[in-house]
Amino acid sequence: MTVLNKKIKLELKEKLVMVNRVCKVTKGRRYFSFTALVIKGDENGVVGYGLGKAKEAQDAIYKAAEKAKNKLLKINIIKGGTIPHEQEAKYCGARVFICPVPEGTGIIAGGAVRSVLEAVGLTNVLSKSKGSSNKINCIKATILALSKLRTVNTIALERGISISKILNGSDNY
Predict the structure, then answer these.
(1) Residue 84 DSSP label
(2) Which GO cellular component terms, listed alphabetically, does the Swiss-Prot or TrEMBL entry include (predicted)?
């Protein structure tokens, strides 16, 4: 069990996205180490990622899991397992576009982006990745796009108007 904001207890599911062996070559020998990328989520709107580095693969995975647990983020999911609106985000060379789709469509995404969307608990989302296919950058861009999502309630609070005015299309405030 993990605590988000030290009040809410969560059952997190862990997904190992990548383990990479890295080699540092010196004059005398080669030094091998490992990096691991882990995504944790409760499949109900909470997700986090972690990147761990160590001499052994298991230690790198453990470090990545701990970092993912400490970087949890709450995402707005609406009924039907989709997102409120389209969103695009860029991180370094990776650009990720996500948009809502009707119920029954499923997750249309590839690679690391799919792992994040499944960990959040989304079931009906379309995604397109452009630019870099680096898994770390794609995950960071996806989480950035998900963190930018706003619901009708948050928009009403930001503008200082009622929800009915937003839903009716009246912007006179």
Answers:
(1) S
(2) cytoplasm; small ribosomal subunit
The segment with the largest mean pLDDT, out of 21-35, 100-114, 159-173, is: 21-35
Among left, alpha and beta (phi > 0; psi -120 to 50; other), residue 161 is beta
Q: Of residues 7 and 18, which shows the higher confidence score?
A: 18
Strands 107-108 and 125-131: parallel
Closest CA to 116 of 137, 132, 130: 137
> b/e for 75-103, b at 16 or more Cβ within 10 A?
bbbeeebbbebebebbbeebbbbbebbee
By C-alpha distance, which of 17, 130, 145 is closest to 85?
145
| The CATH fold of domain 75-152 | Ribosomal Protein S5; domain 2 (3.30.230)
What average pLDDT does the segment 73-93 reach?
88
**Domain boundaries in the chain?**
2-73, 75-152
Q: Does the domain spanning 2-73 belong to CATH 3.30.70.2740?
A: no
The backbone torsions φ and ψ at residue 157, rounded to the nearest 5 degrees and listed phi first, read: -65, -40
Measured between alpha carbons, how far is 72 from 12 in angstroms, rounded to an integer?
10
Other Cβ atoms closer than 10 A to 21: 10
What pTM was computed for the model? 0.85
Mean pLDDT of 44-52: 93
